[in-house]
């Protein structure tokens, strides 16, 4: 496969919502460090896709994903940052009022 295309396998974490691992389908999880897999939990297959440099992804640049897979053997997509106002909902004490 040429450097401008990559068949990518995407896995989601069994432990953390919105944590995804992208790998080259030909390599599978062989290049992913064991310590990362321990933190990631059981990799649950999500989809297989053809990545090209111009492809649009929701939270990453396809060219960056491809570059990291070529360099490290994987790309880890972290969950999006929580909005501060959403965190305030958990900090505010609540009282039941009847």
Automatic annotation (TrEMBL):
PROSITE patterns: YCGL (PS51648). Residues 6-90 form the YcgL domain. Signal peptide: none annotated. InterPro entries: YcgL-like_sf (IPR038068), YcgL_dom (IPR027354). This is YcgL domain-containing protein CK498_04290.
């Amino acid at each position: 496969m040429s450097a401008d295309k990559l068949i990518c396998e995407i896995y989601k974490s069994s432990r953390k919502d919105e944590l995804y691992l992208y790998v080259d389908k030909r390599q599978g999880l062989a290049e992913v460090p064991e310590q990362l897999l321990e933190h990631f939990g059981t990799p649950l297959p999500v989809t297989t896709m053809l990545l090209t440099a111009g492809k649009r992804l929701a939270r990453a640049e396809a060219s960056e994903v491809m570059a990291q897979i070529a360099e490290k053997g994987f790309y880890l997509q972290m969950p999006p940052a929580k909005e501060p106002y959403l965190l305030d909902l958990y900090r505010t004490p609540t009282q039941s009022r009847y």
